[in-house]
Design brief:
3 helices; three-stranded antiparallel β-sheet; alpha+beta; four-stranded mixed β-sheet; single chain; 168 residues
């Protein structure tokens, strides 16, 4: 493989990679190398979940999500999930359990998001970053599933997290 970096940014390293496919054909692909991320479904003892509404310019506005964030260099995904849960939702988890690790868009990025469910929750202060516009809401888990079914929740990691939590 031959790689030429086009842009190294906060999100990752975008570049052109020349590779030979299993069928022997050589192609040049546009690939975003990403450090990975962690996301978390905060599941309260009463069967509700905490969701966030976050402004996402690329998505065209404000969308429903579960708390999530990019892994820092060398950071364990479990630690990232705990950090993002506190920063974005103002919740500390007594327990975090891995639900799944998903490939977000394998056609052009190697990003993996590790999705956890959080339980034994306590409220703490949020610590939103300067570029985060976030509000927090609590809904019944079955209502969150219905929001997925109605198309109100469209974020892939959030859909996976909610459905996996409902199945667990």
């Amino acid at each position: 493989m031959n790689r030429r970096s086009i842009h190294q940014g906060r999100v990752g390293d975008f570049g052109l990679e020349t590779v030979t496919l299993p069928n022997g054909v050589t192609v040049t692909l546009e690939i975003l190398r990403h450090p990975g991320a962690a996301a978390v479904v905060p599941l309260h003892a009463d069967g509700t979940v905490t969701l966030i509404r976050q402004h996402r310019h690329a998505a065209g506005g404000t969308i429903w999500e579960i708390p999530a964030g990019k892994l820092e260099p060398g950071e364990d995904p479990l630690a990232c999930a705990a950090r993002e849960l506190e920063e974005e939702a103002g919740i500390r988890a007594g327990k975090l359990a891995l639900l799944s690790s998903i490939l977000t868009t394998p056609a052009f990025t190697d990003e993996v998001i590790h999705i956890y469910v959080a339980t034994e929750l306590v409220t703490v202060a949020t610590a939103h970053e300067h570029d985060e516009v976030i509000s927090v809401a609590r809904v019944a888990l079955d209502e969150a599933v219905a929001m997925v079914q109605r198309g109100e929740i469209r974020d892939g990691k959030t859909i996976c997290g909610i459905l996996l939590a409902a199945m667990a």
